[in-house]
Amino acid sequence: MHPFFRRMRHRAAVVISSLAILSLASLVVAGMTGSVPVPLADMPAALGELARGSNGTLAATLLELRLSRALVAFVTGAALALAGVMMQALLRNPLADPYVLGISAGASVGALASLLFMAALWVIDAAAFAGAVAVSMMLYLLARRDLRGGGAAEGGTSLLLLTGVILSSLCMAMVTLMLSIAPESRLRSMVFWMIGDLAGAPLRWVPWLVLFAGIVFALRSARSLNVLALHAEAASTLGINVGALRKGLFFCSGLLTASAVTSAGSIGFVGLIVPHACRFACGPDHRVLIPAATLAGGSFLVLADTLARTVLAPQQLPVGVVTALIGAPVFLYQLHRLHRK
User: Fold this and answer.
1) What integer pLDDT is reported at residue 305 of this predicted model?
2) Half-sphere exposure of residue 152, counting CA atoms within 13 Å on the CB side?
């Protein structure tokens, strides 16, 4: 093997291993940190109690609550970051994020309508997922020519993007209407859902299954994504089924976004800044970028949620506020670096 490729492979292994260690460290920090801290020395015993199905001690009880929330944060952040990588590859636009096509706005309509009528928690989740899927299907029906097209020129997804912007505007108008007529007793929960909040989010296996399926599809398509990024106009002549790849990216990113938004609401900036940061750190190769962004997105949201529930304890902030306060200056810094280059 050529020394250059050996160095690149070594660098990729180092980056992914470091991010995997960071992911584990973020979960440990989330389990330790809170109004009542759990010392690191007590963590093994508390984990042993949880493994045996017992939580008799205070440390084990706190660890169960915090790790459950941290795992929800990790799968949500990982799904948003992976969806951001896919959406940027689909639209060939580094400023794209998982919410750019209005899928989260559709989820907001369903969730806020359920909150307005004081529905049960499972009804709210089901309505949010149904709203996201409904917008995705409308997008596909209205802009399927873009997804089916064989070319991959810069303007190849203009119809898809414009359709998503219009549907997002329509959904946000419905959201504004519901917020304006909602009674004050329900307004707080509706606003928190809009901002993005992990308080009370249950740990389910479905988001993990969706994330695993998304990673498998993305890694199998990584070489094709590299060809599409470097040789957009000639991708079909190089053996890439551009239409099938676009449809796969669209449906997979939409499913990941719907799963994340259903779990935690509309948490911003994760799907935008994490793929950018990973590109700066490990380059544009999707074989490295996909696992790196997935691990970094999960770690970032776990640490942001830990900060959200501890900085003003016992009062908890919506995690979407923390990600926006961190993400906005980081993204401006990334844009400045890109402009200088």
Assistant:
1) 94
2) 28
DSSP 102: S
Reply yes or no on whether the pLDDT at 214 is more than 80.
yes
Nearest to 275 by CA among 132, 77, 136: 77
Cα pseudo-dihedral 113, 115, 121, 127, rounded to 10: 10
- Of 337, 322, 293, which is closest to residue 15 (Cα–Cα)? 293
CB of 119 closer than 8 Å to CB of 127? yes
Q: Rg of the Cα trace of the chain?
A: 21
**How far apart, in whole angstroms, are the C-alpha atoms of residue 236 and residue 15?**
32
Chain position carrying tokens 């696992």: 291
Task: Estimate the share of the chain in helix, then strand, then coil, as percent rounded to the nearest 5.
Answer: 75, 0, 25
Cβ atoms of 111 and 128 within 8 Å: the answer is: yes
Residue with token string 């793929």: 275
CA–CA separation, 245 vs 35, rounded Å?
A: 47
Per-residue pLDDT tens digits for 274-322:
998 888 888 888 999 999 999 999 999 999 999 998 888 778 888 988 9
Separation CA 36–CA 120 (nearest Å): 31
With contact defined as beta carbons under 8 Å apart, do 147 and 246 qualify?
Answer: yes
- For the whole model, what pTM was predicted? 0.90
CB neighbours of 335 closer than 8 A, spacing ≥ 6?
none
- The domain covering 18-340 belongs, at the CATH homologous superfamily level, to ABC transporter involved in vitamin B12 uptake, BtuC (1.10.3470.10)
* Residue extents of the structural domains in the chain: 18-340
Cβ–Cβ under 8 Å, residues 260 and 80: yes
Compute the distance between CA of residue 59 and CA of residue 36 in angstroms, rounded to an integer.
9
Give yes or no for a contact between 147 and 163, defined as CB atoms under 8 angstroms apart. Answer: no
Give the three-class secondary structure for 231. coil
